[in-house]
Design brief:
alpha/beta; three-stranded antiparallel sheet; 27 strands; disordered C terminus
């Protein structure tokens, strides 16, 4: 088979889910990672190679790279979230963490956790994807300016974000790999293959072990549309081995020939955002906006993409309620972009969710296995069970979350509200089990601020006062056994809710004991209904109720 029929591309998930949407620590540069690579390979017996255990990474990160321990754990935990572990194993880990009664017990438990060393080195290197460039900052492309966001009511407003988030940009992923391929290959080379700092010897060899590490970032196929394989699997095929410089004597690949073959074979991800927008299956919902029919732009590749590359893109959902619990969404990476005055319910297990440049929108999600990331949003409410919640450059947003990890607050946030998870739907607990998320531990109220502080050092968030707490009712009939909020509510919120319910009962008793006659009851009922409708209009809830009314058959669109 000719070489041109082979395609290699950057995997989506390491960049989408692994790269934190913020500038990385300065010491994640190649200079320090090169030293780290030599250090871990020299300490195989100490738990550094081929798998790096938490105590050794903490020693490297805190002792040598001068990172805070919370930051060291953040990166280690993020890499672990990418690992393909069975949901049962993640549930067992969650149970073990919830039973830790002290910091010492938790630390002892973390000693058992390890990550693939070569993959972790590559994981740390690709954090540079979102590094702010001084050159582009000077010409205005990446300069962080969270206060410059437009407050225009138009859902199509042009807004500058606090940072250029490239996690979804498959063209940026390809450019990054092409630009830094030499460094990436060097990080997985064995020490004896290096002639000096940053210099591979002329006849350097790339081992099969190194190829498995590179498969963390690269995958491909023998022809587009066929089975997708990791790089090491792809290069197990004889004709490709010859092209890439394989030696049967050393069972390794020539570095110069492998690098040349990779450069010739690299292409954009055929399952990435660009391809999905160009040729993905379109979904559409008709909606009435200011007297004119407009459509939300919704596309997906879930009908053709392999696991890990399934993408659903939803843009410009405006003044509409969208609800989906379809299997077509299960396990997908979902991006909600520029939605405004909308109510979005995605009640199915998801891989990840990004909410970007949305405003005045409520998003209710099924369990999200990895990350829910909110970027450059205003007045958005997100309700989720998720492996992680992260927020950047957003203002006046509320998050009702159930998450085993600390919410990550990135720079540029202001006036955020963190609150406990407060809803349920019938199949929620089954969905949670399917993605390995449990009700404990829950760290929704213990955010980690990564370079994120408010004016004069004030935190950019508050915890929702119990007096303001109200549960959310999912307004759809579904099948399942979940009848209450998984894990219940924190005591102070349950107490406030019980007190509110008691006040309602007292009011109902007062009305009953008033012994109104028929005409008085009619007048009283009319007054209550009038005040209720006024409240619906003032609060904006009238729009949500109206949008729940099924559209006439002739206006419905095929959902695909």
């Amino acid at each position: 088979m000719e070489q041109r029929s082979v395609s290699v591309w950057p995997r989506l998930e390491p960049f989408l889910l692994g790269v934190l949407p913020a500038a990385p620590p300065a010491k994640f540069s190649m200079h320090y990672l090169r030293k780290m690579a030599a250090y871990v390979r020299a300490r195989t017996r100490e738990g550094c190679f081929p798998r790096l255990h938490w105590p050794l990474w903490r020693h490297i990160a805190c002792g040598k790279l001068q990172l805070p321990e919370d930051t060291a754990w953040l990166y280690f935990e993020t890499c672990d979230l990418l690992a393909p572990r069975p949901s049962e194993e993640r549930l067992e880990w969650a149970e073990a963490v919830s039973q830790c009664g002290s910091v010492e017990e938790l630390d002892k438990l973390r000693y058992k956790l390890s990550v693939d060393t070569l993959q972790f080195l590559l994981f740390l290197y690709i954090q540079q994807l979102n590094r702010v460039s001084l050159r582009t900052s000077l010409i205005g492309e990446e300069w962080p300016s969270p206060r410059s966001r437009s407050r225009s009511p138009s859902p199509d407003r042009d807004a500058k974000t606090a940072a250029q988030n490239k996690n979804w940009d498959d063209q940026a992923h390809l450019s990054f790999i092409q630009t830094h391929l030499s460094d990436l290959l060097e990080l997985v080379l064995e020490p004896e293959q290096l002639g000096g700092p940053g210099q591979a010897v002329h006849d350097s060899q790339v081992s099969a072990e190194a190829l498995r590490g590179l498969s963390f970032l690269l995958e491909g196929s023998l022809s587009r549309g066929r089975a997708v394989h990791g790089l090491h699997e792809l290069l197990g095929w004889g004709p490709l081995q010859a092209q890439a410089g394989y030696s049967a004597l050393t069972h390794s690949f020539s570095l110069p020939r492998l690098q040349a073959w990779l450069r010739e074979s690299l292409t954009a991800n055929p399952f990435g955002t660009t391809a999905c927008l160009r040729s993905g299956k379109k979904l559409a919902w008709a909606q009435q906006v200011d007297g004119a029919m407009k459509r939300a732009k919704i596309a997906r590749n879930t009908h053709i993409a392999p696991p890990g590359s399934r993408v659903v893109l939803m843009s410009q959902v405006y003044r509409q309620t969208v609800a989906k619990d379809s299997e077509k969404l299960a396990g997908a990476n979902v991006k909600l972009h520029r939605c405004s005055e909308a109510y979005i319910y995605l009640l199915t297990p998801l891989r990840s969710v990004s909410v970007e440049k949305c405003r005045n929108t409520t998003v209710v999600l099924g369990p999200v296995q990895s990350t829910v990331h909110v970027q450059s949003c205003e007045d958005v409410c997100v309700v989720c069970v998720a492996g992680r919640l992260s927020v950047g450059a957003s203002s006046r947003c509320t998050f009702h979350a159930l998450t085993p990890t600390r919410p990550l607050l990135l720079p540029g946030n202001e006036a955020l509200t963190l609150a406990p998870f407060h809803t349920h739907y019938p199949s929620l607990e089954d969905h949670m089990a399917s993605v390995g998320l449990a009700v404990v531990p829950s760290s929704w109220d213990q955010p980690l601020l990564l370079g994120s502080e408010g004016p004069l050092g004030n935190p950019p968030y508050r915890l929702l006062p119990p007096s303001e707490f109200c549960p959310l009712v999912v307004p759809f009939e579904m099948e399942g056994d979940t009848t209450e909020i998984p894990g219940g509510l924190p005591p102070q919120y349950q107490k406030a809710l019980t007190a509110r319910e008691q006040r309602v009962q007292n009011w109902q008793r007062t009305v009953k004991e008033a012994k109104l006659n028929k005409e008085q009851r009619r007048q009283f009922q009319a007054l209550v209904e009038q005040k209720f409708h006024e409240w619906l209009l003032e609060s904006g809830h009238r729009q949500q109720l109206d949008s729940l009314i099924p559209a006439p058959p002739e206006t419905k669109q095929a959902a695909g």
